[in-house]
Amino acid sequence: MSGVIYASPLARARDTAAPVARSRDLEIRLDEDLLEFDSGDLAGQWLDAAASVGTDGLERYGPQQMLPDLANWCAVISAADPALGAHAAELVRGLRDDPPSGRTQGLLQLSFSVNHLVDLGDGPGVLDWDGPRHGPLELGAGAFLATLVRLASQHPELSSDTAAAAAAPLAAADDLLETS
Description:
The model has no long low-confidence stretch (mean pLDDT 80). Strand 1, helix 1 (11-24) and strand 2 form a beta-alpha-beta unit. The protein is of the alpha+beta class. It has three domains: 1-35, no CATH class; 37-60 and 102-180, Transferase(Phosphotransferase), domain 1 (Orthogonal Bundle); 63-98. It has six helices and six strands; from the N terminus they run E-H-E-H-H-H-E-E-E-E-H-H. The chain is globular. The strands form three sheets. It has a two-stranded parallel sheet with strand order 1-2.
C-alpha cells in the first residue's frame, strides 16, 4: 500500500472511501475525530450572521419565487411516492396561503444543508452551489431542517443526533425566525 485515506467510522464515509482506496491501492484508517460536528449549533450561528450581512445587489428571493419550483418537486415526489407527494403538496399550499412575513431579511442560501455546512474553526461557513440571494431567513432554515429530516429517514440510528441538531438553530435564531 502506498498511502492512506482517513475516514470517519460512519458507514457513508467508509462506503465513499472504499472505491477510491481500492482504485489507488490505499489503506483506509478510521478516525473518531472525523465524526459529525455539531451542525445544529453552527447552523444557528450561520442564521444569526446571515441576518446581519449586507445584501445590497443580491437577487431578492421569497416564497413567491420558490412556489413554482416547489410545485414541480411535489410532482416528482408524487410520482415516486403518492402519499409523500400529497403531504409535500399540503406543505406547499400552507407556504402559499401563509408565507413568512419576511420580518428578518438577510443572506439566503438555498443550498443551506447539513451537507454544505462547514466548521471554519472561528465560525460557520456554507458551501453555496446556488448563489446567494436576499430573502426571508425562514427559507434557509427550512432548507437546513429538510436535510436533517432526510438524514434521519436514511439513518434511523442518527435520529437523536438529528433532533438535537434541528433544535439548536431554532433556539439560536428564535428572535429572527417565525416558527409558528
